[in-house]
TrEMBL record:
Region feature (Disordered): 1-23
Species name: Arthrobacter gyeryongensis
Bias kind Basic and acidic residues: ranges: 14-23
Gene3D superfamilies, alphabetized: Phosphatidic acid phosphatase type 2/haloperoxidase
Official protein name in the record: Phosphatase PAP2 family protein
Ranges of residues in domain Phosphatidic acid phosphatase type 2/haloperoxidase: 147-260
InterPro entries: PAP2/HPO, PAP2/HPO_sf
Position of the signal peptide: none
UniProt-listed PANTHER family: AT30094P, SPHINGOSINE-1-PHOSPHATE PHOSPHOHYDROLASE
Length: 285
C-alpha cells in the first residue's frame, strides 16, 4: 500500500476517506446535497470544473471567484454605509456608545482590553491562524484546512483594504481613545472583520468533526464570543466607531458564507468523483 501525501485527491487515501465520511455531514445534514435550483446549478457547475481541474483546482478557482465577489461586496457596503452615515441612521449610535464606553475605563481594564484586542491585530491574528492551520492540517493529513483558512484570511484582508480606501472615514478623536493610537481609516474595523472570518472558518472546520450537538454548540459559542469581544474591544478603546464594527461583522458573515459554500461544492465534486470511480470499477469487472 502506497503512502499518500497530504492533499492528494485520491479517494482511497486517509484524506479522501476522512473528507467524504467525516466532513460531509453536520449532524444529519449532508453538505454535499443541494435542494434549491440555484444550489443544484452551483453543484453541477462545480462538478464540471472538477472534471477538468480536479477537486482542489475547482475549489481554488471557486474561492478566487468568491474573493472577487467579496471585494465588490466591500465596495457596495461602503456605498450603503456612506448613505447611512449621511442620513444619521445607525451612525447616531456611534457617539453615545463611545461615550458610554469611556465611562467604564480604568487603567487596569484599559491594559487588559489593549492586550486582548491585539489578538485580533496584524500580529496576533496571523499567529493564531497559523497555529490553527497547522493543527488542522496535521490532524487531518489534508491541505483543505490550509486552503480554506488562507483564502478566508486573504479575502477578509482584501475587503478591509478596499473598504478603507473607498470610505476613508476618520477614527474617533485621539482624545477619546486609549493609546497606542491608530491612524489608518476607520471603516471597516480590520480587527473585527479578520477575527470574525478566522474564528468562523476554524469553527466550521472543527464542527465538521464534532459528533455531538453539545460539542458543536460549544464550538460556535467560543467563536462567536471571540469575534464579538474583539469587535467590542475596538469600540471600548476608542479605536473604531460602533458602525465600523457592525459593518465588519456583516462583511465577514457574507464572506464566510461564500467560503463555506465553496467547500460544500468541493465535497460535492469529491462525492461525484468517487461515485464515478465506483461505477467504472463495477463496469470493468
Amino acid at each position: 500500500m502506497g503512502v499518500h501525501p497530504p492533499g492528494t485527491p485520491d479517494d482511497d487515501s486517509a484524506e479522501g476517506k476522512g473528507e467524504l465520511t467525516d466532513d460531509r455531514f453536520v449532524g444529519d445534514t449532508d453538505l454535499a446535497r443541494w435542494e434549491s435550483p440555484a444550489g443544484k446549478w452551483l453543484a453541477s457547475s462545480a462538478q464540471r470544473l472538477s472534471a477538468h481541474l480536479g477537486p482542489y483546482g475547482a475549489l481554488i478557482l471557486v474561492l478566487a471567484a468568491g474573493a472577487v465577489v467579496a471585494s465588490l461586496l466591500a465596495f457596495a457596503t461602503g456605498g450603503v454605509y456612506e448613505a447611512v452615515t449621511e442620513a444619521d441612521g445607525v451612525a447616531a449610535l456611534d457617539h453615545p456608545v463611545l461615550e458610554a464606553a469611556m465611562t467604564l475605563r480604568s487603567p487596569a481594564l484599559d491594559a487588559a482590553a489593549t492586550a486582548y484586542t491585539d489578538l485580533g491585530g496584524g500580529i496576533g491574528m496571523p499567529i493564531l491562524a497559523v497555529i490553527a492551520t497547522a493543527v488542522l492540517v496535521l490532524r487531518r493529513r489534508s491541505w483543505t484546512p490550509a486552503i480554506l483558512i488562507v483564502t478566508a484570511a486573504a479575502g477578509s484582508l482584501l475587503m478591509t483594504i478596499a473598504g478603507k480606501q473607498l470610505i476613508g472615514r476618520a477614527r474617533p478623536p485621539l482624545s477619546d481613545a486609549v493609546p497606542p493610537y491608530e491612524y489608518s481609516p476607520s471603516f471597516p474595523s480590520g480587527h473585527s472583520l479578520n477575527s470574525f472570518v478566522i474564528a468562523g472558518i476554524v469553527a466550521y472546520l472543527v464542527i465538521l468533526r464534532c459528533r455531538s450537538r453539545r460539542a458543536r454548540a460549544w464550538t460556535v459559542t467560543a467563536a462567536v464570543l471571540f469575534a464579538l469581544t474583539i469587535g467590542l474591544s475596538r469600540v471600548f478603546l476608542g479605536h473604531h466607531w460602533l458602525t465600523d464594527v457592525l459593518a465588519a461583522w456583516t462583511l465577514g458573515a457574507a464572506w464566510l458564507v461564500l467560503v463555506i459554500t465553496a467547500h460544500r461544492l468541493y465535497l460535492t465534486a469529491r462525492k461525484t468523483e468517487k461515485l464515478s470511480r465506483s461505477r467504472g470499477g463495477t463496469q470493468g469487472r
